[in-house]
Write a structure and sequence with these properties.
There is one protein chain. The protein has 350 residues and is α/β, with parallel strands linked by helices. The chain has 14 helices and twelve strands. The protein is globular, with a radius of gyration of 20 Å. The protein starts with a strand and ends with a helix.
């Protein structure tokens, strides 16, 4: 039996992984694709966004399965969650032509790559390629980069960068494991700065790693699917910081925490977004995402925030019988004041 190719898409918080996956699904050219999504937090935001790309469109483009692993990072739950999910997909009568795995923004890809050598799946699937998506704007501002001068300049203006050591290592680990790196959001960066970003990435990536540039996750799907690299058989040079410094140890996400909350519909969009922006600045929130209900609107509001940048848009109408409430996931560093953040959000309009 020919092995089913699998593409692993990794990347830091808010780099644009879900946007990229949506683009791939909408341009799959008839391929049957099984999609595995690994959430951080228990509100299925990314899964809902992908389903919201239009069920009919997804079906037309051959999306066979969307499987969400919402309880923990995929790199920490390989045996408990990932392997059984893969076995379930491989037991289907109509096998997919391709599998796509979108990892959590906090995930190390290395343990997942190694999992493809597990006996249960080794003879049936292969890693077509590991793709890392990076945020060109963030890097151009000195975030998660190896340029010490840029980091120090940014730290003087933004307390978030007091915590960049752990985040920087995680970012580097995602780059070193990649076969292809997509520099996303180039439309938000001056042309000259994009070349600087690309040079920074080249310094962190393995020799021979492909680098392409994109805006809004729009890339040639043929460049993404069909690399045929069998990455699980090429592990040398992909080691993470944790593997190099703690050989044989277990990876943990002690530096990060997340929580979710639900709240009634808000009076208006502007008030809600303004409050979220204020809370993000006060509490150094790394990532906030979810869906909101706005009184007087029949459409669901998507909220996606990375650092101080907050984007929102209405993606679809509420379904009949669907609860019209706001559900958010908040991700930050350990010590995040969950109680204070919840009190501010739940107090909106009270």
């Amino acid at each position: 039996m020919q092995k089913i190719p699998t593409t692993i898409i990794t990347g830091f918080l808010g780099a644009g992984k879900t946007t990229l996956v949506r683009h791939v699904l909408e341009n799959a050219n008839g391929k049957r694709i099984a999609l595995i999504i690994n959430e951080f937090g228990d509100v299925g935001v990314d899964g809902e966004l992908l389903k919201g790309c239009g069920d009919e469109s997804c079906q037309e483009n051959g999306v066979d399965d969307i499987v969400e692993l919402a309880n923990g990072c995929i790199c920490c739950t390989v045996a408990d969650e990932f392997i059984p999910v893969m076995e379930k997909i491989l037991a289907r009568e109509n096998l997919p032509d391709h599998i796509i795995i979108e990892t959590s923004g906090l995930a190390l890809p290395q343990p997942l790559v190694k999992a493809f050598n597990w006996p249960e799946i080794k003879t049936k699937v292969t890693i077509d390629g590991v793709v890392s998506v990076v945020d060109a704007l963030a890097l151009s501002e000195g975030r998660f980069a190896s340029n010490e001068k840029a980091v120090n300049e940014q730290r003087a203006e933004d307390e978030m960068l007091d915590h960049t050591t752990a985040l920087g290592e995680l970012f580097e680990d995602q780059l070193i494991c990649a076969d292809l790196i997509i520099i996303n959001k180039i439309d938000l960066v001056e042309a000259g700065r994009i070349d600087e970003v690309a040079q920074t990435i080249k310094q962190e990536a393995r020799n021979g790693t492909g680098i392409i540039k994109s805006a809004n996750g729009i890339v040639d799907v043929n460049a993404l699917l069909g690399m045929g690299l069998a990455s699980e058989s090429d592990l040398s040079g992909r080691e993470s910081h944790h593997e190099l410094h703690h050989e044989g140890g277990e990876h943990e996400h002690d530096d990060f925490t997340s929580f979710s909350l639900s709240m009634p519909a808000s009076e208006n969009k502007i008030e809600l977004i303004s409050l979220i922006e204020e809370i993000i600045k006060q509490h150094d929130i790394l990532r906030l995402k979810g869906f909101a209900a706005i009184k007087g609107s029949d459409a669901r509001l998507v909220i996606q925030a990375v650092g101080s940048r907050v984007n929102s848009w209405f993606d679809r109408a509420f379904n009949e019988g669907e609860s019209r409430k706001t559900s958010l996931v908040v991700i930050g560093q350990k010590g995040l004041d969950e109680k204070a953040i919840k009190e501010r959000l739940l107090g909106l309009g009270s």
